[in-house]
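Quick one, probably user error.
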């Protein structure tokens, strides 16, 4: 159940005309009163002798207790209360009780004998919602205490949902981005847009900030995204803020409608975005020694960027699991940048689900836990690499490493959901779970071809090799071996174990390391997860082109080089050790 406090107005009669009228977007069916401050207010909907003007005079009567110069100009309070689409149809009596509970909770009419209330009326003109209209002067001529009435109405709605057995809305904490107004939604519909301008601009700004390293780069990417930019400059010449607009979005005066970054989302204000750049420019000490971590080499290949992002994602998992809250919050915020960058740079067959994942994760990235910047450098570097390495192809090493990083991102999203759930961040936990679902769908699209190739290679193995791999699996994972061998991905895992051995690694050690990294119970396919973990750890090509080519053994203590056909894997090996 969603209560929404609308902007205060000054025209009681005008609002009543709308509530009892035919409707604009939705047809109003049988408008009538379900409740009022004293249960005796005139009902223009059901009483033929009553008019909208009659109800207006009754509601506004307390205004006459004040002199004309003392009356509040914006005296009309308006709240709509809407049930979920899956809820049963409530009766008028139930809506009347809900209206009384909402006005009591918000301070409009506390309902106590020692406290005067405002005059109000609850009007129903549809099955799924009511509107409450009130005059913001009490019966004793004083103003009501309706401070933070929106939050108070939401708290009351959570209790109402429980009492009436309705859909339970996930409670928020005030850190969500501002929702589009009804006027913005109607405007989008008239213009034939699927989303409001506010939502489109939020996604564009978020994408421009992902991986950006400076103010200039951020604004260059905004301009490339086709938005209008207006900068706020101090007399000293310092940049204080910015606003953005879509070229075709105009007001009644035919001027562009600008939105400040902070009104799009709390973390899109210029100072908050600059925090990312400041921390990326600072080296992060390792081990408390004060030694600066050396800069990583530039990334010029999409597959290389994806391998580096996989390593950074795994590092983030460990920090969220074992770091303090501030460090974890920084990792979670930076995860949003990585998802935005993946969505921008991935092939078309995965892009839609990755965009949905990035959009869903936006809610998971913000909470009241203050992020300690600097520890998220690896993830932010990964986002920068993904953007600047260019778009990835859908096949070969690009496509396979895309599947690799998405597979790890699924676990990261689940980790974030669990972290939020433990801290009772209900909306954020739900958003992270939704992100994981979109990432799973993107993974299926990205992994279809490389996993099919690896499965065919595994199916062509000699029987003696397949038996040896199965024996190793039973030895290392006795509780999961039967389940893994029943999965479609088992031949691909068997092929990967053989590749690792051929490259000079000890399969048992790799498998032990891969299984100890993190639990596997939440995996849809354990064999798929192990394939990507093993190939990342052993620096094997994600999509080996020529399995007949034997790799060259490296020196002692150095992982074997990738086959000659995969220079990206060799570069990624160096990058992973640096991480």
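Nope, works fine. Designed sequence:
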């Amino acid at each position: 159940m969603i209560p929404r406090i609308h902007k205060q107005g000054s025209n009681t009669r005008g609002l009543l005309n709308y509530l009892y009228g035919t409707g604009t977007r939705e047809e109003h069916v049988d408008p009538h009163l379900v409740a009022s401050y004293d249960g005796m207010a005139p009902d223009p909907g059901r009483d033929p002798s009553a008019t909208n003007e009659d109800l207006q005079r009754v509601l506004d009567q307390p205004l006459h207790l004040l002199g004309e110069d003392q009356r509040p100009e914006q005296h009309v309070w308006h709240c709509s209360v809407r049930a979920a689409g899956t809820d049963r149809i409530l009766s008028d009596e139930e809506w009347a009780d809900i209206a009384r509970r909402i006005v009591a909770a918000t301070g409009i009419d506390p309902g106590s004998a020692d406290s005067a209330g405002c005059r109000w009326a609850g009007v129903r003109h549809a099955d799924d919602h009511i509107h409450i209209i009130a005059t913001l002067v009490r019966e004793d001529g004083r103003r009501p205490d309706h401070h933070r009435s929106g939050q108070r109405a939401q708290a009351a709605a959570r209790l109402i949902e429980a009492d009436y057995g309705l859909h339970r809305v996930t409670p928020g904490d005030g850190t969500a981005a501002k929702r589009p107004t009804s006027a913005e939604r109607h405007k989008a519909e008239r213009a034939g847009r699927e989303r409001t301008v506010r939502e489109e601009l939020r996604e564009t700004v978020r994408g421009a900030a992902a991986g950006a390293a400076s103010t200039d780069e951020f604004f260059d990417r905004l301009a490339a995204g086709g938005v209008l930019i207006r900068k706020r400059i101090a007399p000293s010449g310092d940049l204080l803020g910015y606003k953005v607009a879509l070229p075709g979005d105009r007001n009644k005066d035919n001027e562009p409608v600008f939105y400040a970054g902070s009104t799009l989302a709390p973390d899109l204000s210029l100072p908050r975005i600059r925090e990312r750049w400041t921390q990326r420019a600072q080296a992060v000490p390792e081990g408390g020694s004060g030694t600066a971590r050396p800069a990583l080499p530039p990334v010029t290949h999409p597959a290389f960027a994806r391998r580096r992002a996989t390593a950074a994602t795994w590092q983030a998992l460990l920090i969220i699991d074992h770091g303090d809250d501030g460090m974890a919050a920084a990792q979670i915020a930076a995860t949003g940048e990585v998802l935005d960058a993946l969505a921008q740079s991935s092939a078309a067959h995965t892009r839609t689900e990755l965009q949905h994942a990035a959009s869903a994760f936006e809610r998971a990235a913000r909470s009241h836990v203050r992020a300690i910047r600097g520890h998220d450098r690896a993830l932010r570097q990964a986002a920068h690499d993904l953007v600047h390495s260019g778009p990835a192809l859908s096949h070969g090493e690009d496509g396979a490493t895309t599947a690799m990083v998405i597979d790890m991102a699924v676990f990261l999203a689940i980790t974030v959901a669990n972290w939020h759930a433990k801290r009772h961040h209900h909306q954020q936990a739900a958003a992270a779970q939704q992100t994981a679902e979109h990432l799973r769908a993107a993974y299926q699209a990205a992994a279809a071809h490389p996993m099919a190739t690896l499965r065919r290679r595994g199916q062509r193995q000699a029987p003696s090799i397949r038996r040896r791999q199965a024996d190793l699996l039973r030895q290392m994972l006795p509780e999961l071996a039967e389940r893994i061998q029943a999965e479609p991905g088992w031949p691909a895992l068997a092929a990967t174990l053989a590749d690792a051995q051929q490259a000079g690694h000890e399969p048992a050690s790799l498998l032990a390391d891969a299984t100890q990294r993190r639990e596997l119970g939440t995996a849809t396919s354990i064999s798929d997860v192990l394939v990507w973990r093993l190939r990342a750890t052993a620096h094997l090509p994600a999509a080996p082109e020529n399995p007949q080519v034997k790799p060259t053994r490296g020196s002692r203590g150095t992982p074997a080089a990738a086959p000659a056909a995969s220079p990206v894997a060799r570069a990624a090996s160096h990058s992973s050790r640096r991480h």
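Residues 281-293, 546-579 have pLDDT under 50 and may be disordered.
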